[in-house]
Specification:
Elements (H helix, E strand, L loop, with lengths): L17 H5 L7 E2 L3 H10 L3 E6 L4 H11 L2 H10 L1 E6 L4 H15 L6 E5 L5 E5 L13 H14 L1 H18 L13 H18 L16 H14 L2 H16 L13 E2 L7 E2 L2 E2 H18 L2 H18 L9 E2 L2 E3 L6 E3 L7 H8 L1 H11 L18 H11 L3 H16 L7 E2 L2 E2 H17 L3 H18 L13 E3 L2 E2 L7 H18 L2 H17 L32 H16 L2 H11 L2 H7 L5 H12 L2 E6 L3 H13 L6 E5 L21 E6 L2 E2 L6 H8 L1
Parallel strand pairs: 1-3, 2-3, 16-17
Antiparallel strand pairs: 2-4, 4-5, 6-7, 8-9, 9-12, 10-11, 13-14, 14-15, 16-18, 18-19
Helix pairs in contact: 4-6, 5-7, 8-23, 8-24, 9-10, 9-11, 9-24, 11-12, 11-17, 13-14, 14-15, 17-18, 17-19, 18-19, 19-20, 19-21, 20-21, 21-22, 21-24, 25-26
Length: 701
Amino acid sequence: MAGENRVVTNRLAEATSPYLQQHADNPVDWWPWCDEAFTEAKRRDVPIFLSIGYAACHWCHVMAHESFEDESTAAQLNADFVSIKVDREERPDVDAVYMAAVQGLTGHGGWPMTVFLNSERKPFHAGTYFPLESRGGMPSFRQVLTAVTDAWVERRGEIDQGAAQIVNALEARQGIDSQDNAMSIDPTKLSDALTIALQRLAHDFDPVNAGFGTSPKFPPSTALEFLLRHANRTGATEALSLAEATCEAMARGGIYDQLAGGFARYSVDAQWVVPHFEKMLYDNAQLLRVYAHLYATTGSALAGRIATETAEFLLRDLRTAEGGFASALDADAPAEPGGVAHEGISYVWTPEQLVDVLGAERGENAARMFGVTSAGTFEAGASVLQFSATGEALASATVGADFEEWLEQVRADLLAARNLRPQPMRDDKVVAAWNGLAIAALADAGAALDRPDWIDAAVSCGELILDVHVPKGSGSQLRLTRTSRDGAAATNASGVLEDYGDVAEGLLALYQATADPRWINATSGLLETVLVEFVRPQGGFFDTAADGEVLIVRPCDPTDQASASGWAAATNALLSYGTIMGSERHLRAAESGLRIADQLARKAPRFAGWLLAAAEAWLDGPFEVVIVGERRADVDALVAATKAAQRPGLIVLSGRPQPDEKSGPFADRPEVDDKAAAYVCRGSYCHAPVTTAAEVVRLLA
């Protein structure tokens, strides 16, 4: 075993994943996740060292620099282990299974994830980041490797027994109670549960800083969507106030990039001041949609500005040449070419730096406005820019009537100077699910803020997904490849449930924005795959396809994490599609997904927001309005009246009459007396068509 330290060729150089490519030059003899790696471990009779991370992860970079670039550590790994490197964004199924093991063994999780397996893929020891040298009660990484090797040699029976017990525990965690599939949902009981969800969120709300919980504080994107829908359905002012306060606190805090737009992954403190600087596509897509929905609900100028700047961030900094959106911007940037990367150096400022760029008077006023002090809020006396109401008032009082113009110029000058600094790396990997989120966000925001260019960008992204991520010859069941890069699909990353649910959701938003039938047709194929490959016999959904790779357990998790769960995404998409097409099959599948909403609402609403948002739409009807007319101005007037009603999950379709359509929402729906007509349906009941805005408002009230 220990005698096989040999010269090797790293196998990651040809990987699609930028994260794997970051490790292609390591002295570690890395393998990608593949059957051959486990065969090799069995042949050599050594354990597997599984390392899971992602390209924008700060502590992944730290462990890579300390340990995976270290010749002595690499020699120990190569001699005593088969080492496998996994991009969690490319293989969320593998990540989910072994994260559950890490959490079960240690009580917490995170990345980089460190897991030791036997050749049967069963975990027996795990952790997250380990330092090169022991510190703070943590053993060094090499001490961990030595201990694992000694146990493997001396106590193999205990290891195998422990691994079997861990797998049994993971299988037991998959036993989700979603009620009998034949049972119907009790609307009164579900509505009561959603009221309890609001009460629990109000209990967890931070009344000083907004948001939920303490530090670290994450953007509660899906919970905000639930709160907005709950307020629209019930009129609960508390739900709206929680959403508004949280959105304003995030928008004014350091978690939001006050110069270039876009949100960082999370705040390390409870005050939203210092972010973990990586910018993820899924966060920004979800938050763009939240702020667009808040703007549509309240008309808030702040919400409209943040939605606009976040959309511009997506299009400027994350859009790829092929029309999709890159996964992330890194948290780190090198202080000098080829040097060690440091977190946040692209973004933070000292008072002196502001003066250098803006001059004394403007620089000092900008420091007051953005909360930049000599003590600093970050490291080495530097500060993360904030835009508190107090700072805004101080700067505005000094500048006077021209404040808005002054602010715009200050931000432009600082951004131009910042762009000359070392810039964070961009992970150009295109993830189907997160691009589905971006499509939905741009389509909704484009409609809410009258930005057809955003809708055009969503169309281009949808075309990329269908052209690159859907293998040719998929038939009536459209299959998805999860990732691509430079217009080429990955060969080892099959779509998981969140890919199907989020892409379907995005295409449905595009269909509502454009009435182009290709989007609803593609959605039909994606959801057919969901119904055939992902449905659980006892209700709800698995995260992986029935014909996918068999892991030690088949993951199944209805709770939201950084983004909506695949379960919730599929439920929302099935509900919307079933409503549009009048399909009982899809509506029944959506109801199957909703059966767990009651217990999640009562127990963990912070981690079930998107499923609870679907429950709000289901309880409300859901409403669908199809508007047909030859004159666009008449149609637009009815559309505006419809959207002003703000029904939860409201589906609005508009276009010219389509007399040749045999099925679908436009079939048999002509104008009335040569006037544009609105066909208003709630659930399976449709009203007679109406032709005035006042009548639409009455029916939707």
